[in-house]
């Protein structure tokens, strides 16, 4: 006898389906599995997970029966699982597919875009680790082009906080988003937003880190900072003119720890050029992060010199 998961809300489904289909329209689990090109084991799993319930379960034997109309759903669930899609996402796609196939397709596209972005970051990290472990870091540094740029004096609105490395991917976009919105009240942005690292940020060291947005109106910036100092730790300050040594990196290279290769490449270039540090390092975000692909350039890793 096949065990049935009592937690699944199958009674109503079975009643409605059975009333709409005669007994000869139903397929045993074996026959349905053959038609769907799946195994009975997979069908039992889909039932247990709430992704594909049989239309009828015999109360005496416990045998499951399926409708031929469920074949397409069974195959879709199988293919989505082959993408390693989480069960909740599969359920969302299947629910959407019943009412709007285009939106269901968009959900799959969005999921796969996230996967490709993660794989691009892992591919970059794997390359970084291979080169580092083999003792050929100088070859890796040579792939980064280092330039210099003079940045004029500028007024900044900022937020500073102590944070560990795992918190950065959440805090940085949230903080810069607040500051960019606030810049509208301060005469508008006059340059790319950036993040300053005053000390090491890792699993053990928490910086501090400062997110910064250049703005046009110093008086408005001071008024805004005074209003939001308590809630966000907001401040305003005058950044002196600086010369930066920097290298440009892609979205895939921004993630920790592979971003360290870019920082190390700039430091190696500075040592080669006999240049001294004139302030803490920074990441300058000049592109639209949300619209950028994994291989698009989005950030300058820089040191004041």
Computed structural class: alpha+beta
In CATH, the architecture of the largest domain is: Alpha-Beta Barrel
Mean pLDDT: 87
What is the rounded Rg?
28 Å
Percent of residues in beta strands:
15-25%
Query: How many helix segments?
Result: 11
* Name given to the CATH homologous superfamily of the largest domain: Regulatory factor, effector binding domain
Which topology of the largest domain does CATH recognise?
Multidrug-efflux Transporter 1 Regulator Bmrr, Chain A
Strand runs, count: 11
Structure summary:
The protein has helices at residues 10-20, 29-36, 40-48, 71-82, 87-99, 101-133, 137-141, 168-183, 218-232, 251-254, 259-272; strands at 26-28, 56-57, 64-67, 146-151, 154-161, 194-197, 209-215, 234-239, 242-250, 282-285, 297-304.
Question: Would you kindly provide a written description of the structure presented here, covering whatever features stand out?
Answer:
- The protein has 305 residues and is α+β, with helices and mostly antiparallel strands.
- The protein has three domains: 84 residues, Orthogonal Bundle (Multidrug-efflux Transporter Regulator, Chain: A, Domain 2); 34 residues; 164 residues, Regulatory factor, effector binding domain (Multidrug-efflux Transporter 1 Regulator Bmrr, Chain A, Alpha-Beta Barrel).
- Helix content is 46%, strand content 20%.
- The chain contains eleven helices and eleven strands.
- The strands form two sheets. The chain has an eight-stranded antiparallel β-sheet with strand order 4-9-11-10-6-7-5-8. The protein has a three-stranded antiparallel β-sheet with strand order 1-3-2.
- Helix 5 packs antiparallel against helix 6.
- It starts with 9 loop residues before the first helix and ends with a strand.
- The N terminus is likely disordered.
């Amino acid at each position: 006898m096949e065990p049935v998961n009592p937690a699944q809300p199958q009674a109503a489904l079975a009643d409605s389906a059975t009333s709409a289909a005669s007994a000869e329209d139903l397929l045993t689990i074996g026959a349905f599995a053959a038609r769907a090109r799946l195994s009975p084991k997979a069908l039992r799993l889909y039932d247990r997970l709430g992704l594909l319930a049989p239309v009828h379960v015999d109360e005496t034997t416990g045998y499951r029966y399926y409708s031929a109309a469920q074949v397409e759903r069974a195959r879709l669930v199988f293919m989505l699982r082959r993408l390693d899609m989480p069960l909740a996402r599969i359920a969302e796609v299947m629910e959407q597919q019943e009412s709007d196939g285009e939106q269901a397709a968009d959900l799959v596209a969005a999921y796969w875009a996230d996967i490709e972005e993660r794989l691009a970051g892992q591919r970059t990290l794997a390359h970084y680790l291979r080169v580092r472990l083999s003792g050929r870091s100088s070859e890796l540094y040579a792939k980064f082009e280092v330039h210099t740029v003079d940045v004029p004096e500028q007024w900044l609105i900022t937020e500073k906080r102590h944070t560990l490395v795992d918190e950065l991917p959440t805090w940085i976009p949230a903080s810069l988003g607040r500051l960019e919105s606030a810049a509208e009240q301060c005469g508008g942005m006059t340059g790319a937003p950036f993040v300053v690292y005053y000390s090491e940020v890792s699993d053990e060291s928490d910086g501090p880190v400062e997110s910064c947005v250049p703005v046009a109106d110093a008086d408005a910036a001071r008024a805004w900072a005074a209003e939001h100092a308590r809630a966000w730790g907001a401040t305003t300050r005058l950044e002196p003119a600086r010369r930066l040594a920097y290298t440009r990196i892609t979205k895939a290279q921004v993630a920790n720890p592979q971003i360290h290769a870019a920082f190390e490449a700039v430091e190696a270039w500075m040592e080669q050029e006999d240049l001294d540090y004139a302030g803490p390092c920074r990441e300058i975000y000049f592109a639209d992060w949300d619209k950028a692909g994994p291989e698009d350039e989005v950030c300058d890793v820089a040191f004041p010199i």
